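$ ./design --mode recover --in tokens.txt
reading tokens...
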């Protein structure tokens, strides 16, 4: 079996077991088939099966106990917000509601901004807005966004309520994200963030600062995001 075939099979084992758990074929506390049984079912090696089970463990779907096997956990739901495809694309099939807390407004860049700006950006200023994202009616993600105010006529009048920012930029301005950088911390929520996400101030949240570069020179999208991962984990594919 080629390396490419092994990787394909490894991913298939993961997806099959995930689907069975999410569908309810295996419930919390149930044992998955043994490694030997899975090897026979997929006609593959123990190494491939163990790698797949380790991935499911990292995703929160199972726990593995010596002498017992793979036990189904209460699975959390993955959020693909690490991708440069944007939050809306990363939510998947879950119910996403976006509320606008601060409507888009043109302004100067904040003093001591969290990313270094070039001369064109400083001169152009920015458009700022903030949003709170609800997943299945639970506040999960608070986001503050600054966009370089270049080639964005009438952007402040655009509605971003329950709409993808990236789709608005593509449809109205032919602007697309090309690459990006993100920095991630685990922090305790302050009073403002804890109030927005409906959590205690001692509750840990994921704080992400990101810079996304577009196909327009000097037009960058900067975001500061706070994510409550109590019922979710962050995921991405590569």
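writing sequence...
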């Amino acid at each position: 079996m080629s390396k490419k075939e092994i990787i394909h099979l490894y991913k298939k084992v993961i997806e099959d077991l995930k689907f069975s758990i999410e569908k309810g074929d295996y419930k919390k506390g149930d044992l998955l088939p043994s490694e030997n049984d899975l090897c026979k079912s997929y006609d593959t090696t123990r190494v491939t099966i163990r790698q797949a089970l380790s991935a499911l463990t990292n995703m929160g779907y199972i726990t593995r106990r010596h002498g017992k096997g793979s036990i189904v956990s209460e699975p959390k739901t993955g959020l693909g917000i690490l991708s440069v495809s944007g939050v809306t694309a990363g939510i998947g099939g879950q119910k996403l509601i976006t509320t606008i807390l601060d409507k888009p407004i043109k302004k100067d860049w904040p003093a001591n901004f969290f990313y270094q700006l070039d001369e064109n950006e400083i001169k152009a200023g920015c458009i700022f807005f903030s949003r709170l994202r609800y997943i299945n009616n639970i506040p999960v993600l608070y986001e503050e966004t600054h966009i370089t105010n270049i080639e964005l006529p009438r952007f402040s009048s655009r509605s971003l309520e329950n709409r993808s920012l990236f789709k608005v930029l593509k449809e109205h301005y032919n602007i697309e994200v090309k690459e990006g950088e993100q920095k991630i911390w685990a922090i305790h929520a302050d009073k403002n963030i804890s109030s927005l996400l409906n959590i205690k101030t001692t509750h840990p949240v994921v704080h992400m600062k990101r810079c996304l570069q577009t196909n327009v020179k000097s037009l960058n999208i900067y975001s500061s995001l706070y994510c409550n991962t109590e019922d979710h984990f962050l995921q991405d594919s590569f």
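exit 0
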